[in-house]
Fold this protein.
Amino acid sequence: MTARVSIDGAACFACGLCYVLAPNVFVEGHEGKAELNPRYRSGSPYEGLVPDELLPEAVRGMMTCPVKAIDVAEVDERLEKLKNAP
């Protein structure tokens, strides 16, 4: 399984907790706001898919966000492949 991670860039106020406590998933972006690590982005710096081994770290970032600007949800990879098929 992979996890879909999304960040509400408007809600983030750049406290830095997520990228300090979950540095493999989140990075400091423009104006100090959280962005997803470029390796896992799906186009936007605020959303993407993270591998299963980073799920605990992604959840740690989500749980420490004081404004709840981060969402993490498990993804069924089979469904994602079907959605992205030509």
The chain has one domain: 2-83. Strands lie at 2-7, 26-28, 34-36, 41-42, 44-51, 70-75. The first strand starts at residue 2 and ends at 7. Residues 63 and 70 are 8 Å apart (CA to CA).
